[in-house]
Design brief:
Layout: H1 3-15, H2 19-32, H3 37-49, H4 53-69, H5 73-89, H6 93-108, H7 116-119, H8 122-130, H9 134-150, H10 154-170, H11 174-189, H12 195-211, H13 215-230, H14 239-253, H15 256-272, H16 280-292, H17 295-306, H18 315-322, H19 326-338, H20 342-359, H21 362-373, H22 382-398, H23 402-419, H24 422-438, H25 442-459, H26 462-472, H27 482-492, H28 497-504, H29 508-522, H30 527-536
């Protein structure tokens, strides 16, 4: 194939979104004969979508120089503007600032820059937002949006609406922010947005929808992202994050087996080059491990998620609580919440309630419930209604008000049922059962517990089953506590009692006591036998 025909084939493959073919063909021509400026721009896009950010940055840098050499000021400004935005995504803020400055200098010298005058201001606005200046970023995005609408640039408008929406959310105008997201996603669904910004917009708004307890929007937008990715089988970038977001929703919906598959796919796509899945892939695997009782692997995946630069919360704090480290859970969730913006902090509040109740600080738990309710006059989403009711019921049970707790738990159970969230529904049933016990109605309590047990057993939620067995008073002699399961898992890895203690923040003596209890419950006498039991029963 000649270079000319390879170039034509590469352009055609890119137009048809056959990214693997496009990358191979364009890179081949670039290596042998070089590419013109516009084709270097195309190569940069294709490389990014194939999970090759360094190659994308290199191609865009050379496109900028080629545009300048050809006296194409607009082309050079656009290449520089995309470099500034992409470098923010890659965490290279210093170079992003330099490229944004180049882009703005070029545009300032143009007599009629059109929508480009708005585009080159995007990266500085995003940087302002990331630096904790949402009010200033909001003003900047509003001005860019006005430019985009004046020139009928739908793609620029969609990208700007993402930034404006995030700015509005951070200043407390959550409803207005999601209104911007609605408009941006409508543009993505209509095909008005190029692949890279379409992926950025979709992944960002889905994540924010879950954090805002808006399951309806998250589900709808995930459907858009899923169809978009399926239409591009060669896509690498965004594909891992797509699977991680799917795993998050599947967990809520109680499809844990499917969630596990999606999370593993997210991790495999991260390894294939989707750098955007660096947090979501391990975090969702950690969440699955925590809920299933695979505490050791969960802790390892939370650690890997934390290496991305984002805190793996609230999952890690809830893991500490699950294995009996209530004080550490409380310390971590308080520290995380103190450093979070208001939007992120609200997402942490349900975990704060659970941990503060377990740690015995009911005043802190009550404050968290009040904060979770939010300002008066706003219309809460169905998921937020369920979340608030469940949190309120948990606090009321702990405070010794079973009558009010039962009413709140019933509301939560019904709301979770309507949302199709079986695990949370079962947890609210357990809270209702606790309230019945407080009212001396053991039969009603056992009915709630049995219903919850069916759900937990079907899901494989071993920690919840163990807690429920204690409540029902029917824990089999051989059933281990959550802490004992964790010790057994670590024993099976070959760790000494001292090493296990260091891992779990326990004394060597306490580990020895747990191990003695494990031997007694399981009828074992050696560490080797305990290891065999752990493997035979799927505990590792």
């Amino acid at each position: 194939m000649t270079s000319s025909s390879a170039l034509d084939a590469g352009r055609a493959a890119a137009a048809e979104r056959r990214w693997a073919d496009a990358y191979e063909l364009l890179a081949r021509v670039d290596a042998t004969d070089g590419l013109a400026a516009s084709d270097l721009d195309l190569l940069a896009t294709v490389a990014l979508l194939r999970g090759e950010p360094p190659a994308s940055v290199d191609a865009l840098s050379r496109a900028y120089e080629a545009h300048l050499a050809g006296e194409d000021t607009a082309g050079a400004a656009r290449s520089a503007g995309w470099l500034a935005l992409n470098l923010i995504e890659l965490g290279d803020f210093t170079r992003s600032v330099a490229w944004a400055a180049r882009a703005m200098r070029l545009v300032s010298a143009m007599a009629e820059p059109g929508a480009l005058a708005g585009f080159v201001r995007l990266a500085p606005a995003v940087a302002q937002l990331g630096s904790g200046n949402p009010a200033e970023a909001r003003q900047e995005f509003e001005e860019v949006l006005a430019i985009a609408e004046r020139h009928d640039d739908r793609e620029l408008a969609a990208v700007t609406l993402l930034g404006l929406g995030k700015s509005l959310i951070e200043v407390g105008a959550v409803a207005d922010g999601f209104g911007c997201f609605d408009r941006a996603m409508a543009a993505v669904a209509a095909g008005d947005v190029a692949p890279v910004p379409a992926g950025v917009i979709s992944c960002a708004v889905i994540s924010d929808a879950v954090m805002a307890f808006d399951l309806e929007r998250a589900t709808e937008w995930t459907g858009v992202l899923d169809r978009w990715c399926r239409d591009q089988p060669d896509l690498i970038t965004f594909s891992g994050q797509r699977h991680a977001l799917e795993a998050m929703l599947l967990l809520i919906r109680g499809a844990w087996a499917e969630a596990s598959t999606a999370a593993e796919l997210a991790l495999s796509r991260f390894r294939a080059g989707d750098y955007r899945a660096v947090y979501g892939a391990p975090y969702q695997l950690a969440e699955l491990g925590r809920l299933r009782g695979a505490f050791h692997s969960a802790e390892e995946y939370y650690r890997r998620a934390g290496e991305s630069g984002w805190e793996p919360q609230p999952g890690l704090a809830l893991l500490h609580l699950a294995v009996g480290r209530a004080q550490r859970a409380q310390d971590e969730i308080r520290r995380s919440a103190a450093g979070a913006d208001p939007f992120t902090r609200r997402f942490l509040l349900p975990a704060i309630v659970e941990i503060e109740v377990a740690a015995g600080d009911l005043d802190a738990a009550r404050r968290a419930v009040d904060e979770l309710r939010g300002p008066g006059g706003s219309t809460p989403t169905p998921m937020l209604v369920a979340t608030v009711a469940a949190a309120e019921a948990r606090v009321l049970v702990a405070a010794g008000d079973p009558t009010a707790a039962l009413a709140a738990a019933r509301d939560a159970t019904s709301a979770w049922q309507d949302l199709g969230a079986p695990y949370e529904r079962a947890r609210s049933m357990v809270t209702a059962g606790r309230a019945h016990l407080g009212l001396d109605d053991r039969d009603a309590a056992l009915a709630q517990f049995r219903g919850a047990r069916e759900v937990f057993a079907a899901l494989g939620a071993d920690p919840a089953l163990a807690e429920l067995a204690d409540l029902m008073g029917d824990r089999p002699a051989g059933m281990l506590t959550a802490r004992e399961v964790e010790v057994l898992r670590l024993v099976s890895t070959g760790l000494t009692n001292r090493a296990i203690g260091a891992r779990l923040s326990l004394s060597e003596k306490t580990v020895a006591r747990h191990l003695s209890n494990i031997f007694g419950k399981l009828g074992l006498s050696t560490r080797a036998a305990a290891t065999s039991y752990a493997y035979e029963n799927g505990l590792v």
